[in-house]
Amino acid sequence: MAFxxxxxxxxxxxxxxxxxxxxFLTHFWLDSRFPGCDTVTKAGCSxxxxxxxxxxxxxxxxxxxxxxxxxPHYDLFGERQKQILTAEKQWSQxxxxxx
Length: 99
Known about the structure:
alpha+beta, 4 helices
């Protein structure tokens, strides 16, 4: 279940992903499979090769990519989410979601 997201934020993420940029979208999220995680960040890019190359620097396995036709992305959560958002200087998302 996702919440804490504005339609404008989602639309901007989609535009950025479609342009071939590495784009980040964080929202609150509850999933019983991942206890203790209450947020997720989608790191997406329409250029899957670029996304794979980007992910390698953070030890992300290409098999973890959600191969959505228009919006391929990694789901980041937990300590890895915090580490990557910090490295990518995504301060507003870190602050907004108290990560």
